[in-house]
Amino acid sequence: MDKTKYPASTKKAQENMEASRPDTATRILDVSERLFVEHGFEATSLRMITQQAEVNLAAVNYHFGSKDALFEAVFMRRLAPLIASCLAELDELEAREEKLSVEGLVTTFIRPCLALSKDPARGGALFVRLLSRTLVENHRLLRETISQQYSVFVQRYSRAFHHALPELGVEELAWRMHFAFSVMFNAFAGNDVLKIFTRSQIVSARDPDMIVKYLVPFVVAGLVSPVEG
Questions:
Q1: What whole-number distance in Å separates Cα of residue 227 and Cα of residue 229?
Q2: What is the dihedral of CA 76, 78, 84, 90, to 10 degrees?
Q3: What distance lies between CA 8 and its chain's CA centroid?
Q4: Cβ-contact 103, 220 below 8 angstroms
Q5: What is the pTM of this model?
Q6: Residue 114 contacts residue 132 (beta carbons within 8 Å)
Q7: CATH number of the structural domain 3-65
Q8: How confident is the model over 177-201, as a mean pLDDT?
Q9: Residues 138-188: tens digit of each pLDDT
Q10: CATH assignment of 78-224?
């Protein structure tokens, strides 16, 4: 049947039905997540998203309202469970160890990231790369949202590292945590800079297990190094 013969009201009703289907929002989020990794936020258009998700623009507007809100939604559905996992690991460590170890604290962050990278149902390596790249680039859309919603994460880890490294002043500790988390985010961002330093076709900086193997001792060494002067 020729759909052009439908009255405008009927066509609009069909679009609304499609937009409100429970799987439509998930499909939009999944496609957007992949495209944001492949092309970045600016280069990913709503047209690209709607074509690959096989939905119309009305569906995006119905569920998210704008491209900015969609970008935020892509992060929040994955980031909230990841932060919760990190804090649960931190709770367990604090309950188990009277004197917190720096390696233990680093592991409470790394282990959930590693688990997430191996679980496609929660975004897998794709989302870990997107999260890492966006945080490294300090994306304007998420900077304020993350700082507001996840201040507890920052406060808990800052307090825990202060307990583990009481010899460090506030400023010194802040700088070391800045460098440590920057290194960890960069390591998971999927930028295979390792190829510059080795010609091996087997070794890859996108292998999460290899990342963790070499990343943890490197980060710990930086955090615990003696204070100059």
A1: 6
A2: -120
A3: 42
A4: yes
A5: 0.73
A6: no
A7: 1.10.10.60
A8: 70
A9: 666 666 666 666 788 889 999 999 999 999 999 999 999 989 988 887 777
A10: 1.10.357.10
